[in-house]
Amino acid sequence: MVNIPNVKLNNDVLMPQEGFGVYQIPDYEQCKQAVKDALAAGYRAIDTAQIYQNEQAVGDAIKESNVARKDIFLTTKVWVSNFGKGTTAKSIHTSMNKLGTNYLDLVILHQHFGDYYGAYQDLEQLYGENKIRAIGVSNFNASAYNDFVKKVQVIPAINQVETHVFNQQTDLIQAMKKYGTQIESWGPLAEGHHHLFTNDTLVSIGKNHNKSAAQVALRFLVQNGIVVIPKSVHPERMKQNLAIWDFELTDDEMKQIKQLNTNRSIFF
What we know:
Blueprint: E1 6-8, E2 14-16, E3 20-21, H1 28-41, E4 45-47, H2 55-64, E5 73-78, H3 87-99, E6 106-109, H4 116-128, E7 135-138, H5 142-149, E8 158-162, H6 170-177, E9 182-186, H7 200-209, H8 213-223, E10 227-228, H9 235-242, H10 251-258
Parallel strand pairs: 3-4, 4-5, 5-6, 6-7, 7-8, 8-9, 9-10
Antiparallel strand pairs: 1-2
Domain NADP-dependent oxidoreductase: 27-261
Organism: Philodulcilactobacillus myokoensis
GO molecular function: oxidoreductase activity, acting on the CH-OH group of donors, NAD or NADP as acceptor
């Protein structure tokens, strides 16, 4: 079994540094099987969202697995249509029912649109009631984040943003260090954009370690202290994505990969 290290969030909660994401797996049976395969492979963090429409499948997979709920770090994200005082809390209870749990390890606001302050107040309240172990945000750029932290009671433990070798989020990471907010990468493999899997730099470095370009790309992120949640429906690929903890990139290799940064989103 792979020994995935934890990161300590700003409220001392421990979170696995690598987890399994279920974005774009809306089919119930496929998602349930993928989560069961991921847990069997050794993943102990699962990331879903209300808008993914697969919370029920995730919950049923956890129930049918031989991994205890207490050993799984479970995240969901609140969609914009459920933002607002009272509305957000109600939607989170619905998510808990679908996920088959009476608490969540992490709940994130999915976007900074609509009444996200009202939504976050609900997260703060549920956090205070120990229904949620950690709360955070997603897709907040440095400007939005800096404004947000000055107006909330509980500093976000997580900001989940597009982060990969082509968009390394260096400015945002610096902004969040002051408050101890952990960066979590969605799209850590850039969904294959910019020919990531055949990128000359990543392939060349991979040969030094008998690793693939994808494994090098993931290793670069975790070696920079970033939490990653790669997604796959193929058990062999899941195992490959986990096989990043038995090697280390050299300072020179890290510098080479830093040169790939464009500081631009490839999705928006």
